[in-house]
Amino acid sequence: MTAESTLQGTFATAADLLAVIEPETGGRQIKDPATGETVGRVAEPGAAELEAAVAAAKAARPAWAALGHAERSGFLNRAADAVEANAEALAELLSREQGKPLNGPNARFEVGACAAWLRATAGFELEPETLLEEDGTRAQLFYRPLGVVGAIGPWNWPMMIAVWQLAPALRMGNTVVMKPSEYTPLSVLALARVLNQVFPENVLTVVPGGREVGQALASHPDIAKVMFTGSTATGKAIIRSSADTVKRLTLELGGNDAGIVLPDADPKAIAEGLFWGAFINTGQTCAALKRLYVHEEIYDAVCAELTQLARTMPMGHGLDENNVLGPLQNKAQFDIVANLVQAARDSGARVLTGGNPDPEQPGYFYPATLVADIDNNNPLVAEEQFGPALPIIKYSSIEEAIEMANGLEVGLGASVWSADPDKAREVAARIEAGTVWINKHGAVDPRVPFGGAKQSGYGLEFGIEGLKHLGTPQVING
Ligand code: NAD
Predict the structure, then answer these.
(1) CATH code given to domain 14-253+456-477
(2) Does 351 sit in the ligand 1 pocket, CB within 6 Å?
(3) What's the gap in Å between 231 CA and the centre of ligand 1?
(4) Which sites are catalytic (predicted)?
(5) Which atom of ligand 1 is nearest to the CA of 452?
(6) Mutate to test the pocket of ligand 1, among 231, 241, 251, 257 (most ligand atoms within 8 A of CB)
(7) Fold held by 257-445
């Protein structure tokens, strides 16, 4: 299939997508994290292109806003159809650029989630709220479009998080200028290319680039709101950059999610949920289980079940259908994980499995690693590892476990594992996190609001609450 013939139709392979998103010449090379081979090239436009994109998005906004909810929902549903029609090509490119396998809860799953979130966001009804009705007058609350929304994303779930940002923004009548992570720009450019088969011109624009483009977007006077997903440190920088223009912000920042296993849990029954809670996307997930607290009575049994399971999970190149775990996406992240595990080992903690990456293997593969008998203050526990290394901490009283779970400045997700869901809910209510799951971890749903507590951010995504965060509230009273 040639680039010409794909313009109005479907893309069969990642190469077909690359043919329409790569610059004709030059650009920066993006490497496959599994092999070091070049995946493709990305143009890095710079300040002038950002200005042009914001101006075009501003000009496109009135007509898009005037369409109304029903028509915009129709566009989102057709955008979901376009994603589904191009799903395999998108998943292949995502796998090659990000590293995640096609199989398992990885690349195909992520592309499927893009379509699911677009459709769900099309379906929500946000009605005006009548607050008062008396003496022939009424006060009503509406949510009007904000303007141009700037969206800044990370490299771990680049397509899905792009959709989490753009779908509610567009649905609410805003236009969007998006800056993907410099590590995964091709995935977002390809996704936007597919979506823009459907959307009117300049409603959604992607401007690749690094931190400077993000900074320029966050301080731009014509950007009304920034949707940001990434690290807490960058979130703080965005708060500062956006201060002079009093931008609205939704900040989905880093986490270091705790899981607490109560003594009545069945180690065998919960092992798989714990494993994928921690190792989904090879641990590179904001709301993944990153510290596991297990009661002393079942500590050894949980460690044994998890170790057995971790050893059965194939890790390797993403395009090999056998694999369910992939490489770390980049060298910096590989080094963070390797250094934290080494420091844990040096402190006397016990590595149950993993922990020894093969220096001969190309790519940033770090084996699935479980670390037991580790102190709660160890950096592998206290810092966000964002990779396939789970520390397992022993506790003896539930009070101690809750105190340790709440002991950090972040609070994105958490989980409680028990045979008694009511008891688990009581513990959950005492944990300082935006979401606390019972007997699962990290499950998100487009109908259920998601957001962080403490320094994991503010603002909510998904569902009706998510739509409200992409509108400016207006009361009409009289
Ligand atoms: P990052 O903060 O390094 O980068 C995120 C984005 O911000 C990139 O596009 C980057 O170019 C841009 N950026 C960097 N400096 C900037 C600045 N000063 N101004 C504006 N933009 C700037 O994060 P990352 O390494 O890509 O992602 C990993 C982090 O993201 C982890 O901490 C993870 O927990 C977090 N995360 C959170 C969620 C969530 O929903 N809460 C989801 C995924 C990832």
Answers:
(1) 3.40.605.10
(2) no
(3) 4
(4) 252
(5) 41
(6) 231
(7) Aldehyde Dehydrogenase; Chain A, domain 2 (3.40.309)
Q: How far is the CA of 253 from the centre of ligand 1 (A)?
A: 7
Q: Longest C-alpha distance within the chain, in Å?
A: 79
Q: State whether the beta carbon of 463 lies less than 6 angstroms from ligand 1.
A: no
Q: What is the pLDDT of residues 143-173, one digit of tens each?
A: 999 999 999 999 999 999 999 999 999 999 9
Distances (CA, A) of 17 to 37, 110, 180: 18, 17, 17
Tokens of 348: 């006397």
Which ligand 1 atom minimizes the distance to the CA of 152?
9
Q: For the chain, what are the domain ranges?
A: 14-253+456-477, 257-445
Q: Is the CB of 22 under 6 A from ligand 1?
A: no
- What would the pLDDT profile of 6-58 be if each residue is shown by its tens digit? 445 799 999 999 999 999 999 999 999 999 999 999 998 888 999 999 999 99
Q: 117 falls in which pLDDT band (50, 70, 90)?
A: very high
Contact criterion met (CB below 8 Å) for 364 and 99: yes
Q: Which of 256, 254, 272, 255 is nearest to 417 (CA)?
A: 272
